[in-house]
Amino acid sequence: MKRVIALTFLLLTLPFAAAQAEPASEASIREYLRLTDFRRAIDPITANITSQAARQLRTQNPAIADSVLQNVAASIHQVVTENIGSYENAVIAQYQQLLTEEEVRAANAFFSSPAGQGFAQKLPQFSQAAGRAAQQWLQSINPQLQEAVKAAVGQ
């Protein structure tokens, strides 16, 4: 009898559990990306690619004209802009593996609010702040890290 009750309970709760764990839809994730201004996040990536390319070109040819480097930056920006959709699709596929529809809907509700919009506008600053904090932290523990490496090498 206990088995029948347990089996009945399990069968009754399975549809609820499945509905609760529904993978996020492409549409809800696209809305999330719109609300959080995802495409704005591409600007630092483009700037990083451009900076690396300019450094490499300058190293290979110290006399390279600034106008050439500006052309390189414009070309990189164009390629990134033309291909942003494929990057966005890849992000959506990754998010669908990580998030449920319920989670994305809740995030979208938040980011649709004035507080959420304020938060979304500061997302790039959060990443920069976290990077600065990580650098400061690593500098503060650098002597300990060096001692740990010396001790490990000496063993």
TL;DR?
This protein is an all-alpha fold and 155 residues long. The chain is built from six helices and no strands.
Detailed description of the structure:
With 155 residues, the protein is an all-alpha fold. The chain has six helices and no strands. It is 86% helix and 0% strand. Helix 2 packs parallel to helix 5 and helix 3 crosses helix 4.
Estimated helix fraction: over 70%
Name the helix and strand elements from N-terminus to C-terminus, one letter apiece: HHHHHH
User: How many helical stretches?
Assistant: 6
Low-pLDDT regions: 4-8
Radius of gyration: 24 Å
Strand segment tally: 0
Quaternary state of this entry equals single chain
Biggest sheet layout: none
List keywords for this structure.
6 helices, 86% helix, mainly alpha, extended, 155 residues
